[in-house]
Amino acid sequence: MADDKPLAKKVAASIKKDLQEQLGYYQSLGDENISNEQLALLANSILQGKGGELPARQASFAYDIISSWQLLQQLEGWEKSL
């Protein structure tokens, strides 16, 4: 809104890095090597009461996993539209 594109890019890069690190942490809590998207889908399934195949350590972060993945997708979408 302030039309400071260099600052916006810097902030977006920092947020994107943080979200990727968060998803990496959530990945490290599991035994399987699945994509971030698969992890988010399984977390969403758990939150909807449809069950899921996530270890308890990951399942306890289901909401955070979904939020991080959605925000990362939104940031990447914005980057593509610029």
Description:
- By secondary structure, the protein is an all-alpha fold.
- It has one domain (19-81).
- Helix content is 73%, strand content 0%.
- The protein contains four helices and no strands.
- It has helices spanning 5-28, 36-47, 56-59, 62-81.
- Helix 1 runs antiparallel to helix 4 (62-81) and helix 2 packs across helix 4.
- It is elongated.
- It starts with a helix and ends with a helix.
- The model has no long low-confidence stretch (mean pLDDT 90).
In brief, what are we looking at here?
The chain is an all-alpha fold and 82 residues long.
Keywords:
single chain, 82 residues, mainly alpha, 4 helices, 0% strand
Helices and strands, with pairings:
Layout: H1 5-28, H2 36-47, H3 56-59, H4 62-81
- Overall mean pLDDT: 90
Give the overall form: elongated
H and E string:
HHHH
How many domains is the backbone divided into? 1
Taking the sheet with the most strands, its summary is: none
How far is it from the N-terminal to the C-terminal residue, by CA?
14 Å
How many alpha or pi helices?
A: 4
Count of β-strands? 0
